[in-house]
């Protein structure tokens, strides 16, 4: 067996010592060849040596433009949020016309992570064509198809996965949220069979969420029972304690106790002032994003991590958590000018080239409003507000990324109610400190009077009126959130007061809000 094959086999088996020895021998044998450096990079990454792995990937790429090497380098660059470098490496890999399915799929995953869903379709399609039996490749193509509005193409891929593997839980859940289910067309019976046959906790979790989604679409109150079981399990597994988030809110309130004159007039590019759309998740932020991005002068950059990443890097705190009390405290010493420039640099690869304004639609940016207001004084911030009980219900019933610390509260009704209360308190503080910078828009008000509220939104953002903003549902740009199906329909009141269907089960949250003096009417 050659040194290269020995190293690859050892990496696949997790034998990093053998892999490293073989790869080093390959480098010594041919110092100008890229393969040894590439294999050393894979081993280093697997060992958790990320910085070393990045240097070794670069050394490999400098010695040859192998598409596999470029794709894997792009993947790791995207994971450490070096988005511009990742985009260039991914484009370089595509330019080499890769033929193996794994490399094509990797390129597609990088493009997806960077928010370039349309460009990901081609490499994902080629990966499936070369290896149609791989369910991961099909799933990635289906997801990208869904994000870009190719609903029937996505459905075809998900069904192909389930035909080969009837227990594929991710495909079941993806199909459930792909469109609204009806009595004539739903998957409830199939999901019940899949749940009965599920062999892992993760599979049962996803299938229960899928069942809950479909039953909720059908108006069946049994949806809540599935969610209660799934969420109780997730809370046990996560070990979440509300005190974790309470520390973050406390630290923000301590840092931003009173108005501060310290701000920055903005770098040269500040005329392309960002519009931040923030709020609790699943409250209509995607709807606002679609309305604004339907304007001729605005494009959506998606849910950027640019502000959290910029702040974390400049704060220099050692924790692996993006936002925590220590990072917030350390941010006191960051000059607004540095933060504004760091944000624009991080956001740069995602910014549109064809419009003067862009939207950053990360809901959790409501935590960073104080930093945004100081570092980007020309930015506009729109916070969507929704009835507290509908907010609790929409969070409780949604399967967020299980590893994301942003949404760990959502597995428990009272945790979610407590989170909403602190969110509400923080938004009141931001509005007091920055009264001209933050527009709080009511979801219910928008649904009840679309044109008046849309005009208010457009005026606040400093834009001229554009009739297209009322026809947001024909906007063809990608949507990579669970709201994809909803925002491709005209505005409607279907989701207003939806919590009342489960009023009895949600009573603990309502009673808690009442005790806190929070109106749920």
TrEMBL record:
Assigned keywords, A-Z: TPR repeat, Transferase
InterPro entries the UniProt entry points to: P-loop_NTPase, TPR-like_helical_dom_sf, TPR_rpt, TPST-like
Transmembrane annotation, as ranges: none
GO terms for MF: protein-tyrosine sulfotransferase activity
UniProt repeat feature TPR, residue ranges: 101-134
Pfam families from the UniProt entry: Sulfotransfer_3 (PF13469), TPR_16 (PF13432), TPR_19 (PF14559)
Superkingdom of this protein's organism: Bacteria
PANTHER family xrefs: PROTEIN-TYROSINE SULFOTRANSFERASE (PTHR12788:SF10), PROTEIN-TYROSINE SULFOTRANSFERASE 2 (PTHR12788)
UniProt-recorded name of the protein: Sulfotransferase
Organism of derivation: Qipengyuania flava
């Amino acid at each position: 067996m050659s040194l290269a094959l020995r190293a690859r086999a050892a990496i696949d088996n997790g034998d990093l010592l053998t892999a490293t020895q073989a790869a080093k021998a390959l480098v010594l044998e041919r110092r100008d060849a890229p393969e040894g450096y590439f294999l050393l990079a894979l081993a280093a990454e697997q060992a958790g040596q990320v910085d070393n792995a990045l240097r070794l990937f670069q050394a490999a790429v400098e010695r040859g433009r192998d598409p596999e090497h470029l794709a894997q380098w792009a993947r790791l660059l995207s994971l450490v949020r070096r988005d511009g470098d990742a985009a260039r490496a991914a484009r370089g890999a595509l330019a080499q016309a890769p033929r193996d399915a794994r490399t094509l799929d990797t390129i597609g995953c990088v493009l997806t992570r960077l928010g370039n869903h349309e460009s990901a379709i081609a490499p994902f399609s080629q990966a499936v064509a070369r290896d149609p039996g791989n369910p991961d490749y099909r799933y990635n193509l289906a997801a990208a198809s869904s994000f870009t509005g190719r609903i029937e193409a996505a459905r075809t891929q998900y069904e192909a996965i389930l035909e080969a593997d009837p227990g594929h839980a991710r495909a079941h859940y993806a199909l459930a949220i792909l469109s609204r289910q009806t009595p004539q067309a739903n998957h409830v019976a199939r999901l019940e069979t899949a749940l009965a046959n599920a062999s892992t906790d993760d599979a049962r979790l996803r299938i229960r969420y899928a069942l809950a989604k479909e039953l909720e679409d059908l108006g069946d109150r049994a949806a809540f029972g599935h969610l209660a079981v799934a969420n109780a399990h997730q809370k046990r597994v996560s070990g979440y304690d509300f005190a974790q988030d309470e520390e973050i809110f406390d630290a923000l309130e301590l840092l931003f106790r009173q108005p501060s004159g310290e701000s920055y007039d903005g770098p040269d590019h500040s005329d392309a002032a960002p519009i931040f759309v923030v709020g609790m998740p699943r409250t209509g932020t995607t709807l606002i994003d679609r309305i604004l991005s339907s304007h001729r002068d605005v494009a959506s950059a998606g849910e950027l991590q640019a502000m959290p990443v910029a702040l974390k890097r400049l704060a220099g705190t050692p924790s692996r958590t993006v936002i925590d009390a220590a990072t917030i405290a350390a941010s006191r010493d960051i000059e607004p000018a540095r933060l504004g420039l760091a944000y624009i640099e991080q956001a740069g690869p995602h910014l549109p080239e064809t419009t003067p304004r862009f939207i950053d639609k990360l809901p959790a940016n409501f935590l960073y409003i104080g930093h945004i207001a100081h570092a980007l004084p020309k930015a506009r911030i729109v916070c969507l507000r929704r009835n507290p009980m509908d907010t609790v219900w929409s969070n409780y019933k949604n399967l967020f990324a299980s590893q994301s610390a942003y949404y760990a509260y959502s597995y428990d009704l009272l945790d979610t109610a407590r989170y909403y209360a602190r969110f509400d308190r923080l938004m009141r503080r931001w509005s007091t400190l920055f009264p001209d910078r933050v527009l709080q828009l009511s979801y219910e008000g928008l649904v009840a009077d679309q044109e008046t509220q849309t005009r208010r939104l457009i005026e606040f953002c400093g834009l001229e009126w554009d009739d297209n903003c009322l026809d947001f549902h024909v906007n063809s740009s990608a949507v990579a959130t669970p709201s994809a199906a909803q925002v491709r329909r005209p505005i409607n009141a279907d989701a207003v007061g939806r919590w009342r269907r489960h009023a009895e089960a949600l009573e603990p949250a309502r009673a808690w809000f009442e005790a806190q003096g929070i109106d749920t009417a």
